[in-house]
Design goal:
By secondary structure, the chain is of the alpha+beta class. It has two domains: 202 residues, no CATH class; 164 residues, Alpha-Beta Plaits, CATH 3.30.70.270. Helices cover 65% and strands 9% of the residues. Helix 12 links the parallel strand 4 and strand 5. Helix 5 runs antiparallel to helix 6, helix 5 packs parallel to helix 7 and helix 9 packs across helix 10. The longest helix has 42 residues. It is elongated and about 100 Å long.
Length: 398
């Protein structure tokens, strides 16, 4: 037996996609896309790192940073590739790669500062472009604010270390090091631009989530989690549009029998439980393309695309039997009366649903717990309802 809280947790899965579901889906696709981007970058980066390192081996005066640091970076890249290809945690891979690259950038800046009589610009310029790539990775991994702080700290250290080395040598003139200053300012401008783009993206996603939340609240019944009446209108209009193209479509209007008696006998909380259990039961019994929503009170409307009158009648009878044979946890047996209406030429939303409502009302009059199919008279004018006919598989309930 499921509890009320469990039913409430399960219900959003069968209605409109909730903002949380939409967000979860977006996160999943984001992770898949990031994993592919990382693997593509690694496939390009590993040969480049290996080639640069091999080229340094043949130099008479090799760059000691490349000579000793690049093999470590190469091992990190190979590990990351294997980790990602095995489908392991993306977060772990990102954190390891980010930490290793921050260490590499700071180590290169420190090496530049400590190497005597070396051209600071030649040694440090590549550091700033690595910093740009590192900043992009940070904005993919962390929140905008945290990534901005980490990038700013790393950038300031990379700027300060070369100037500290120059000042220590007595070469700290801005005029003499204008090229280094230009590279640093250009890198800083790019990092500010990246921060602005990341902030705008975060703001856009937040506003989008808020709009989805408002849409979900406006189109979802809060009790059952099903589409509400407003959300069902487009589903019915879609049936009518398909009918105009020659495709059959039907609706079923289902009303719980003696629901007022349930509320009076067991209380409104049990009545709410009955509505939630009914919503679960109906959704589990329908196709993925069908839509079930709460029409109002204890009434549920079901749209059946590509379903003619006979098919809709079979579905309705299956639902009636399912309702009758599935006792509620506390209220016991709860039956339903169902009215079926199939789209006809000249129908609009009001006419189609009114015919289903008339058929459902006749099912009530005939003793409840039965299916009645509404048929339009061949001589009926548009907007005029003919009496429902064809009572099927019913059994009277007390």
């Amino acid at each position: 037996m499921t509890t009320q809280s469990e039913r409430r947790q399960r219900l959003p899965l069968m209605a409109l996609t909730s903002p949380e579901q939409g967000q979860d889906t977006a996160v999943s696709w984001s992770q898949i896309l990031r994993r592919r981007v990382y693997l593509g970058a690694l496939a390009f980066g590993i040969p480049v790192v290996l080639l640069v390192w091999l080229m340094q081996l043949g130099q008479p005066d090799p760059d000691l940073y490349i000579l000793y640091a690049y093999p470590l970076l190469l091992l990190m890249c190979i590990w990351s590739t294997g980790w990602l290809m095995r489908g392991r945690s993306l977060r772990v891979a990102e954190q390891v790669v980010f930490t290793c690259n921050v260490t590499a950038v700071l180590a290169q800046s420190l090496f530049t500062a400590l190497k005597p009589d070396a051209a600071i610009l030649d040694l440090s310029s590549s550091t700033y472009w690595m910093l740009v790539a590192l900043s992009i990775l940070a904005f993919l991994m962390f929140s905008t604010r945290r990534a901005g702080v980490l990038t700013a700290i790393t950038y300031l250290l990379c700027v300060a270390l070369p100037w500290a080395a120059l000042l220590d040598r007595g070469e700290g003139s801005l005029a003499a090091n204008s090229s280094l200053l230009r590279v640093q300012l250009t890198c800083g401008a790019i990092l500010v631009l990246l921060f602005g783009l990341a902030w705008y993206r975060a703001r856009f996603l937040q506003e989008r989530h808020e709009r989805l939340t408002l849409f979900h609240l406006a189109h979802t019944d809060p009790l059952t989690g099903l589409p509400n009446r407003r959300a069902l209108y487009p589903a019915v209009e879609a049936l009518l549009a398909a009918m105009a193209q020659g495709t059959s479509g039907s609706v079923i209007l289902l009303d719980l029998d003696h629901f007022k008696r349930i509320n009076d006998t067991y209380g409104h909380n049990i009545g709410d439980d009955v509505l939630m259990d009914t919503a679960l039961l109906l959704r589990s019994a329908l196709r993925d393309g069908d839509t079930v929503g709460r029409w109002g009170g204890e009434e549920f409307l079901i749209t059946l695309p590509e379903t003619d009158a006979l098919g809709a009648t079979i579905v309705a009878e299956r639902l009636r039997r399912l309702m009758s044979s599935t006792p509620q946890p506390l209220a016991g047996q709860v039956t339903a009366s169902l009215g079926v209406a199939t789209c006809e030429s000249g129908d609009d939303l009001r006419v189609l649903t009114a015919r289903a409502d008339a058929a459902m009302y006749e099912a009530k009059q005939l003793g409840r717990n039965r299916v009645v199919v509404a048929q339009r008279s061949a001589f009926a004018e548009p907007g005029t309802l003919s009496p429902p006919t064809l009572t099927l598989w019913g059994e009277e309930v007390g």
